[in-house]
Structures are given as C-alpha cells and as structure tokens.
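Appendix B. Raw example, untouched.
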Amino acid sequence: MMEDKDTILMIIDIQERLIKSIQNKDAIVFNISKLIDTVNLLSIPKFFSEQNPLKLGNTLGSLPRSQQDIIASKMNFSCINCGELNKLINSRNYKNLLLCGIETHVCVQQTAIDFINQGLNVFIAMDAVGSRNNLDHQVALRRIESAGGIISTTESIIFEWCKSAQRAEFRNLSEIIKRERPDT
C-alpha cells in the first residue's frame, strides 16, 4: 500500500520537444496535472527530471509548479544518479516512488528498475506515462511489473492516498478526480 507520508512523486522528462510525438500526450499531461495537484494538496514531495534540457527544452509550462519543486537535469536515462533526488529520498527515508512521465520504455523503465533494485517500492501511474508507440509502452509496463513495480492508475492512486471519505481533504480530492479534460 502506498501511503502519502512515505511517497515521492517523480515527473520524468515531460519536456517541450519530447512530448510532441508521444501517443495520448494530452491525456498523459492531464493525468500528471491531477497527480501534481493531489500531491500539492497532501504535501507529498515531487521531483522533476529533464533530459538534456539544452536540446530538448524544459518541463512543460502548463504543469503546476511551485518554488520548492526540485528540478534536475540529466544526461543518463535513469534518474538513479540525480543527487537531488537521492538527498530527498534519504532525508526522510521515503520508501515509495510514484513515477509518471515519458518515455515509458526508456527513462521511466530504467528509473523504475534501478530504484526497485535499490529496494524501493516503485509505482507507475500507467495512464500518466507514455511512449511514441504503443508496443514499446506496453512491453515496458510488463517489464517494470515483472521486475517488481506496481502498475496502477491516476484515479486509483489518488483514492489510495485519500483512504477515507472522512479525510479532511476528501472534497478537494474528489474535485480533482472528477475533473474532465477540456478537449473531451
């Protein structure tokens, strides 16, 4: 079970030039926004990575951000060597990582497997990750799951963090869950 107190949300490489060719990109960005709004409401830390931002651009400006967000640029596909992330994990001995972003079969998969091998529980919001083609996306999800990752959905994860309709934040979380994509 993923608790809100021991989880970090990782938003992997949702960058201007990378997102253009991703299948279902609008739905992916929409679901990532819901996750970000949820972690902001529940005070769950978040971490953004950017793959070679000088060539691929920065994180999409449409995603909700705050001053305290950690943003790390990287050249490796996996986030395992991002010093800022490791400091955050070790600061309170977080044991759960929730991954979202792109591409499922490259940076998300390598990050997931590396952190699973480090002993962390890795969750993937399958409707908040994507690749340029569906086969790569599907095979990567299967590979992450066979390595020990836990596949879920954005809505299921939000309810898992909420735990009860009696939680003080339930009304606001319910509004996030019910939000509909503007283009549907």
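End of appendix B.
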